[in-house]
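Reopening this one. Same input as before:
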Amino acid sequence: MFEILPNWHPVFVHFTIALLLAAAFLFFVAALVPARSWSGACRAAAYWDLWLGAAITFATVAAGIYAFNTVRHDEPAHLAMADHRNWALATASVWWLVALWSVFLYRRKRVPPLPFLAALAVAAGLLLVTAWKGGELVYGHGLGVQALPVDGTAGHDHDDPGDPGHHDDPGAAGHGP
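Same output, byte for byte:
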């Protein structure tokens, strides 16, 4: 399994995205229903998700820089990689600032105020744009993936359900469990 990974960036980045977006979601849930008995638990989980996500982001950024310098690519992909890198560095910086702000709020036992929630919304938006740009690198430029098989099995048509190699046919040749 590990031999297919050109680097560890894809592993770390998915933890970063999941933890940080979960933190933002939980902070908003806690803010929207502050009178509920479970609101405090949502906020506690949000803090932990934010802090873990911010910590893992250091590894994500380091692995991303390594990928930037080692993954084979052409000139159009290089321009897209530089754009993704710039968005990622700005996005990570914003999340780290939000995480530091959250430590201040937590230590003073303050409920996160509206400006904090606004900063979370901006940070989440930045994260989604950065993730989109990372996805374009993989799915648009084919970076960090192995080539399709060259034995002729890679080019079957997905539009023909009668095709014996179609994915919707459980008995299709070459598509077993």
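So the earlier flakiness isn't reproducible anymore. For the record, Residues 9 and 67 are 7 Å apart (CA to CA).
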